[in-house]
Design a protein that fits this description.
heterodimer, A: alpha/beta, Flavocytochrome C3, Chain A, domain 1, Methane Monooxygenase Hydroxylase, Chain G, domain 1, 5-stranded antiparallel beta sheet, B: alpha+beta, Ubiquitin-like (UB roll), Fumarate Reductase Iron-sulfur Protein, Chain B, domain 2, 5-stranded mixed beta sheet, two-stranded antiparallel ribbon, binds flavin-adenine dinucleotide, binds iron/sulfur cluster, binds FE2/S2 (inorganic) cluster
């Protein structure tokens, strides 16, 4: 199959407009007879389901948590980007488009990214109309802050809870449609198979997680909004339940997987404290605005941080990147921390951490504050106290969270941080209409591969999820469903549903009957370790080849030695987890193959063989300026299809932050 | 921070499903690190149970960052345990010492039936939101976001109410199992904003009607909800809800849409 991205013809800034004014429409009477399944109720799923319900489609939503409001999107802290230019600081649709393409290290589509920038402003309008309480200035207008990788202030936020407020806005819009009878909501339901009839996605098999029963659902189209797959690494900043299952089932039924190896590792997370660690907690990127990152100059230095004199500290980001200092992009900051720790300069009990120090910011702010208050000879202690007050106002909730988790007071002792898996740029391959290679199957939000190339900029995932759900899919779905209005609802006793359900129940029974010795958790941890060591922040051909073999062996062991307690027909979280880990054990292999195929370093994908003399990433535009879209061909069999990326407007160049 | 290890006795509520009767079961866990979170201690216990080929304890959790509202344990008689403004997942083991006994129960309320062990059904909260916890605006209808300035103080107050994570600790903590704090947080969030103004009367009335229909108890101003709420939702919101409700009923616009 040749990949057709279906980017509309015409100049970049007219493509979306012309698509919208020429696409096919479905009239309201027909919409009432069209069923849509939306898997996932995060920002992408909730916004899509609410908007489609408003248009009159018959929508069903699914999520594995007990309420749509608990999707992983709720945890986003920092903010959402939009090209509003409210600060009059030179922002524009083009600039947001350009920053996103460059931030993604020139591995995303111009057409998609420009559309994203165009609709970004509508998102903020929509959210405000719903009552999302964004931060405001004293004049009553919306407030903005800056984020990594940009020179303008275009990030809208609601304290450290932006994702929560945006999701609650979308959730409320969704619940309104439930009340109006346009949406039926299935919580604690997990999609376990896609049903394809005559080459089109026509439904799903879901397991009711309370009763354990398998249930069949028909629809004219299926939207996967099931989030990212960072938990393949076991430890990540994702919620515990985030998984790849929905996307992976679709992949095995014919949907190509785009750039699976593109993973984002966030530089500022609370480090692992021991083997018991179940997840990692992000400390917002905004902390790098004022904090200074350092390690001791002496290897294995075991002194307490406050005992290490100034001239024995290595502020390595400031040393290596004088122009950007502590504000280099995420991928660069993460690799630099790893480099120092690997070289033996790490701090804390595990030596896998670096310091994020607020002492100089506290002193700086304290002096300013003392001046403001007219205290001309304030002593050091007063200055400190005043400074702590300012820092508390800006970052108080983050400092509090750090203290709850570590038991250390970050106002007095520098925070310890280390990079952690955070986001997956890869995902199901989709065309401009967000349709996968399976007709009638769409992917939105983090589940697709679309807009962030090899590295996502901060505050852009929320933007993309809501763009897809509120403003893109309502048009593109209609364009395709216009040809489907004569298709009657297919009864779920159709043989395709029978067969799909049987596949699921056979697999569940197989899992339950292994009755081995090792827990699901233990397999997940072992997979995570392979992925982190060999397909993590730095990768090389040798390690990736080893990883492929290790994963295959681990998968075999899993299928012969996993132990799952309890019954099938009951609430059984161990069984839920087993299915997810089984899929991660297949995905992990594909990620390594993709990383092995891509003989270059770009964005979050760093191949040690491809770096400059001073350790910076080296792209190979002549060979790898393409999307790798993988087709599933059977166990461990994947075929790669290329979608070449053509830059008509932007001229790719090597990124430099020196 | 000094780290230490401890052995603990856990008394945990076990209940096979909604219909069967539950009971406490006692477990010993060893060598728990003071650096673990409370749920990581449960992970250790569950791994131990799986190793013995016994059924692990079912409990709800997802983000483990104090924001999704999924975790819900009633620990030694307190919803989300002893720490102020803290969800179960953010409670850490340095709170405990070697030899302690910890009793863990599910949220207890008629409107939150137990699904299994420590897992309860909170779908009644979704239905309360469905009754009116939104602004009726369709996608695409919005005006420019800055066309409507909102006084900072109002916006901040609204935000403070919107911080509710829908966990249900307020219900679990209340002797009457009232959901007033939850309902009032949503009503306040929207009533304080001009966007929420056109529907404020029907919203208050319909949400309260639904709350009653779900079987939540009535509010007698005990204040246990506020004390246990992990997000610091204040009792002032309940006072505001009462004013909204009374205002709506007296102006005659309280026709439910049910
Ligand atoms: C800690 C943290 C902070 C972040 N901060 C920011 C930020 O400040 N700004 C920003 O732009 N981005 C941020 N991100 C990234 C951003 O939050 C996510 O990329 C985004 O929210 C994903 O939204 P989504 O709708 O695609 O998926 P999710 O919100 O992950 O939702 C997935 C949905 O799918 C459902 N689901 C999954 N599988 C199945 C299945 N098999 N069956 C049924 N249902 C299923 C789930 O129940 C859930 O409802 C952050 C991420 C993390 C981890
Ligand atoms: S009001 Fe507080 S306790 Fe009640 S549901 Fe909201 S966050 Fe939880
Ligand atoms: S698990 Fe999300 S709030 Fe505790």
């Amino acid at each position: 199959m040749t990949l057709n991205s279906k980017i509309p013809a015409g100049p970049l800034d007219k493509k979306w407009e012309s698509y919208k004014s020429t696409c096919k429409l479905v009239n309201p009477a027909n919409k009432r007879h069209l069923d849509i399944i939306v898997v996932g109720t995060g920002l992408a799923g909730a916004s899509a389901a609410a908007s489609l319900g408003e248009l009159g489609y018959k929508v069903k939503t699914f999520c594995f948590q007990d309420s749509p409001r608990r999707a992983h999107s709720i945890a986003a802290q920092g903010g959402i980007n939009a090209a509003k230019n409210y600060q009059n600081d030179g922002d524009s649709t083009y600039r947001l488009f350009y920053d996103t393409i460059k931030g993604g290290d020139y591995r995303s589509r111009e057409g998609n990214v420009h559309r994203l920038a165009e609709v970004s402003a509508n998102i903020i309008d929509q959210c405000v109309a719903q009552g999302v309480p964004f931060a405001r200035e004293y004049g009553g207008l919306l407030s903005n802050r800056s984020f990594g990788g940009t020179q303008v202030q275009r990030t809208f936020y609601a304290a450290g809870q932006t994702g929560q407020q945006l999701l609650i806005g979308a959730y409320q819009a969704l619940e309104r449609q439930v009340a109006l009878g346009n949406v039926t909501q299935y919580s604690r339901h997990e999609m376990l198979e896609l049903v394809i009839i005559d080459g089109k996605a026509r439904g799903i098999i879901a397991r009711n997680l309370v009763t354990g029963e398998l249930e069949r659902f028909f629809a004219h189209a299926v939207l996967l909004c099931s989030g990212g797959y960072g938990n393949v690494f076991y430890l990540s900043t994702n919620a515990m339940g985030s998984n790849v299952t929905a996307a992976w089932k679709a992949h095995k039924k014919g949907a190509y997987f785009g750039n699976p190896c593109f993973t984002q590792i966030h530089p500022t997370c609370i480090p692992v404290s021991g083997d018991h660690q179940s997840k990692l907690t992000l400390m917002s990127e905004s902390l790098r605005n004022d904090g200074r990152i350092w390690v001791p100059k002496k290897q294995g230095d075991s002194r307490k941080p406050n005992e290490i004199p100034e001239d024995e500290r290595d502020y390595y980001l400031e040393r290596r990147y004088p122009a950007f200092g502590n504000l280099v992009p995420r991928d660069v900051a993460s690799r630099a921390a790893k480099e120092r720790c690997d070289a033996g300069y790490g701090v804390g009990a595990s030596k896998q951490a670096v310091y994020l120090d607020y002492a100089s910011a506290i002193e700086r702010y304290g002096k300013v504050e003392a001046n403001k208050q007219g205290l001309s000879n304030a002593d050091a202690r007063t200055i400190r106290e005043l400074g702590e007050g300012v820092v508390k106002e800006k970052y108080g909730n983050l400092f509090e969270m750090y203290e709850k988790i570590t038991g250390e007071n970050p106002y007095k002792v520098p925070m310890r941080i280390y990079p952690a898996v955070h986001y997956t740029m890869g995902g199901l391959w989709v065309d401009y209409e967000l349709q996968t290679t399976v007709p009638g199957l769409y992917a939105l939000g983090e589940a697709n591969f679309s807009d962030h190339g090899a590295n996502r900029l901060g505050a852009s995932a929320l933007m993309q999820g809501l763009a897809d759900g509120y403003f893109v899919i309502p048009y593109t779905l209609g364009n395709n469903l216009a040809d489907d209005i004569r298709t009657k609802a297919i009864p779920t006793n159709h043989p395709a549903f029978e067969a799909a359900e049987k596949e699921v129940s056979d697999r569940i029974n197989r899992l339950m009957n292994i009755k081995g010795k090792e827990s699901v958790e233990s397999f997940h941890k072992r997979l995570g370790k392979i992925m982190w060591d060999k397909c993590g922040m730095a990768r090389n051909a040798q390690g990736l080849k080893e990883a492929v073999e290790e994963i295959k062996a681990l998968r075999k062991e899993f299928w012969s030695n996993v132990y799952i307690p309890g019954e099938v027909k009951e609430f059984n979280p161990e069984l839920d987890k087993a299915g997810r880990v089984a899929d991660f054990l297949e995905l992990g292999e594909l990620m390594c193959l993709d990383a092995l195929n891509r003989n270059e370093s770009c964005g979050g994908h760093f191949r040690e063989e491809y770096q400059t003399e001073d350790g910076e990433a080296m792209r190979q535009d002549d060979k790898y300026m393409y999307v790798a879209a993988w087709e599933y061909k059977g166990d461990s069999q994947f075929e790669m299809h290329r979608e070449d990326l053509n830059y008509e407007v932007v001229h790719p160049s090597q990124r430099s932050y020196k | 921070m000094e780290h230490y290890h401890m052995n603990l006795t856990l008394k945990v509520w076990r209940q096979k499903n909604k219909n069967e009767r539950g009971r406490f079961e006692t477990f010993q866990v060893k060598n728990i690190s003071s650096e673990m979170s409370f749920l990581e201690m449960f992970d250790v216990l569950n791994e131990q149970l799986v190793a013995e080929q016994k059924e692990p304890i079912a409990f709800d959790h997802d983000c483990r960052e104090g924001i999704c509202g999924m975790c819900s344990m009633y620990i030694n008689g307190r919803a989300h345990g002893p720490w102020h403004h803290t969800t179960t997942c953010q409670l850490h083991m340095r709170e405990y010492k070697d030899g302690d006994t910890i009793v863990v129960e599910p949220w207890r309320a008629n409107s939150f039936p137990v699904i299994k062990d420590l897992v309860v059904d909170r779908s009644s909260f979704d239905r309360i939101i469905q009754a009116g916890g939104y602004v009726s605006v369709n996608t695409g209808n919005a005006v420019d976001a800055n066309a409507l300035p909102i006084e900072k103080q109002k916006a901040d107050e609204s935000f403070a109410a919107a911080a509710c994570i829908g966990c249900g600790a307020c219900v679990a903590a209340c002797p009457n199992a009232s959901a007033m704090l939850f309902v009032s947080a949503k009503v306040s969030h929207l009533a304080l904003l001009p966007q929420g103004d056109p529907e404020r009367k029907t919203r208050a009335v319909n949400m309260i009607q639904q709350m009653d229909k779900e079987g939540f108890g009535s509010c007698t101003n005990i204040g246990a909800c506020e004390a246990e709420c992990p997000k610091g939702i204040s009792l002032e919101n309940i006072a505001r809800l009462n004013r909204e409700y009374i205002g709506a009923v007296f102006s005659g616009s309280g026709e439910g849409n049910a």
